[in-house]
Amino acid sequence: MTTAHVLAGHAGTAHVLAGTVADKQSGEPFFFWLLAIVSVAAALGMIFMRKAVHSAMLLATVMLSLAALYAIQDAPFLAFVQVIVYTGAVLMLFLFVLMLVGVSSTDSLVETLRGQRFWAAVSGIGFIALLGTGFANAALGDSAGLKAANAEHGGNIRGLAYLLFTKYVFAFEATSALLITAALGAMVLAHRERTTPKPTQRSLSVERFRRGAQTGAHPGPLPGPGTYARHNAVDMPALLPDGTPSELSVNPVIAARTDTAHRHTDLRGKTERQALDKDVRAVRTVTETADSEAGAVAETEEVEK
Amino acid sequence: MSPGHYLALSAILFTIGGIGVLVRRNAIVVFMCVELMLNACNLAFVSFSRKQGNLDGQIIAFFVMVVAAAEVVVGLAIIMTIFRTRRSSSVDDANLLKY
Amino acid sequence: MKAEGIQAAAWLLIAFPLLGAAVLLLGGRRTDRWGHLLGVAMSLASFAVGAGMFVQMLGYDDAERRRTLHLWNFFDVGSLHVGMDLLVDPLSISFVLLITGVGSLIHIYSMGYMAHDEDRRRFFAYLNLFVAAMLTLVLGANYVVLFLGWEGVGLASYLLIGFWQFKPTAAVAAKKAFVVNRVGDLGLVTAIMLMFATFNSVDFTTILGTGAEHVGLAAKLTSGTATALGLLLLLGACGKSAQLPLQSWLLDAMEGPTPVSALIHAATMVTAGVYLIVRSAPIFEMSPDAQMVVTIVGAATLLAGAIIGSGKDDIKKALAGSTMSQIGYMTLAAGLGTPGYALAIAHLIAHGFFKAGLFLGAGSVMHATGDDVNMRHYGALRKVMYVTYGTFGLGYLAIIGCPPFSGYFTKDGIIEAAYNKGGTSGAILGTCALVGAGITAYYMSRVMIMTFFGEKRWQEGVHPHESPKVMTIPLILLAVGSVFAGGFLVLGGFSDFLAPVVGTPEEEHFNPVSAPGVATFVLMIVGVAIAWRQYGARPVPLEAPAGSFLTRAARRDLYGDAINESLLMRPGQWLTRLAVWFDNRGVDGAVNGIAAGVGGTSGRIRRIQTGYARSYALSMYLGAAIVVAALLVVNVS
User: Which one of A66, A117, A142 makes the best mutation probe of the B interface by having the most chain B beta carbons within 10 Å?
Assistant: First the structure.
């Protein structure tokens, strides 16, 4: 209701589609078609995107569209719950897990199960055809509208609350039990039993040096990336004192990406080699300048003495 | 708008979600598709609520959301556990329980 | 009428030998020392009771001689009420005296004959068991009790034939006797079932009526049912009495100890079939066809038995053939109807005496020659075995029908009765019987000459000697019976005695110089002469000559076994093989095929469980689509 009123502007053209709905709302056809197209497009995008993060974002779009549709249909409470719980909480949970699992992971588009896609398409088309037939056959008639129902207890939220704590109170209580169970379940599943004593700072340090003595691995922390040395991107390798770039300084995830060089060609040169040379030159210039300044300062001090 | 429009939209979204469950291999995406199906159902409930002129449909949609939230919590925990042991979130990799 | 006096204790007849058998079988080795004495005592006690009953019966009028004794209700099933009833009448008392009398003599003889056998106690137990069963058979007042005894006799016969079961031939012979008897039993059982279906009773009184008038239900039989019943009873009789076509077991049964041959396969058991036919006379009289078949079987068997007896070198088998032949006479007489019943029973009793005597004499000879049964190894035994020679000779004269010995009275009567039947069939049957008498004279003379006359053909180390008194005294007693029994019975009014049971023959007086009688006498002389010319006038070769076709056939029991094998055994084996094949391929194939099919199908269906959650989801989705489609179909239509 609210969203629809706020967004309602001009929807006269959709007058025909609205039919004879009792709680006819101005502009509803326009917003319906808009949101319908958006949500279907987003849903299709969701299942065709290779990256899970993109799918999650498109799902958020669908959910927001649905929230708006709830609002149009006199369900403001559900619309906000949709936004807050689904879009806000559930989807964030999804994204959180995605980050844990690996945001960079992408699905291969090659289907491994024989006939899976074909039959999925067949069953999907068949299913929607059947549902369509069912709706077409159903004598849906006109919408009764919720104005009276909402007004009975002084508003949609009050009406829902009234029902929830009278007619559906047992279901509500059962739901609370379900939520507690779910919380406990999540904790149990996420809990990891520690089988070895937790390593202390000291033991970690000892282990690091022992490994360094045995394999020659560097015992200290890895060098930081070249950020702020010349660029403000974490994919720039740091330069070692001799001017060569340190491969270790770049996050392995970033280093694995092959397009690092290309993204900076405009800035540094046509190839990676050129960019590197350019960087090395620039760094040398800076250090030499610093050296000469330092030499000048020293000389000045000596002179002062 | 007649309830039929909303129901048609609901059916389309539900079917898309179903196909997504069938074709996607990433467990998280599959799970998102399930959520999409639940949302499509909610839309149908809300539409029917409006059609009937009472709030019971909205109550059911509300319960669906609650259950979905609980399901997401547990489901994602399971996905995390599997990922932790198998280093994979593909539903096809967890296929040892077979003939 | 109910039994009184000693007859009320008729159950003791069966109880004594049954008790003896039980004590001897259950007592084990503790009874080894005195077991044979107990067996003889029990048999004699039974004989004493039987004799007492007989004397009591003679005191009654003809109409009162039929007495029944109800012991207990055997079983009641639906409308079938079977009581453990005994029937004492002239027919059964005749058998009782024969069984217990001859049986006791054979018991006594066995004490000597089996003296050196380790299992003598067991032997006497079986003998007692046999006597008990045989008495049950003849005393039963209904067909079920009769069948009880019938089967008991079969069991005892099996046990006694296979008494020396360490000999494979004895074991096989016992099995053969048992199996062949079962075939006959099938006929009897079916007959009893048919009787129950027809009369709703199995009781003699109800079915056959009381007295010679035969006013029982059998008088109302249709000829078809009567013929069926008659033929089924005949099948039973053939099995027990070794008549064609179930004759094959009797010759093999000679594997048993000789007293067994004497008791079971000559004097008593094989007469059970004749008893059955005479007892069931009212049924046979309702069906001339069945009677005709009985006479044909009898005539064929008497000739076949005589021919087989002529070809055997084994003394016991020769006598066994003779038994077949003599029982053929009885069956023939029983098939002739009222004129023949008394003759059949008279011949049966006379035969019981002289055949037992002959067998026991043969046993004595074998005892003397170290269990050698080949007559070609005998010769000139009359010089060392006076008693055996004398008693065997009297039995020989009795069986060939030499006047005035037993066989003359009884056998001539049968031949005459066959001719008196009239018509073509009468002539044929009479001629068969007449020829049989001639052959009887031939083969018995052959046995006699080869055994007791001629020169010694004894094997190395054989020193024949007379048997002990315990064996010779029964021989003497039996010889007395052989001499006088026939004349006593025929001239002493035995047919009058039996008349209350089997009716009075129209022409009952004995005619000593009838045409058949003369012809029989002449043929007898001819038979003896031929035998003398072949075996007495020239030396008997130690090895049997090849002989004519008839001789070879007789040696092989007229190919009875070959016929059984080719007609019954081979097809049976093929049937079994077919059944096995069907079982392996058909039944097992179906079962295994179903199992393999289920297994194979499951193995393939199993592949649906790919482990991919997405596949499962797809099937769920398709299922949901189908549910929606079903809902639509239901709702729209």
Answer: A66
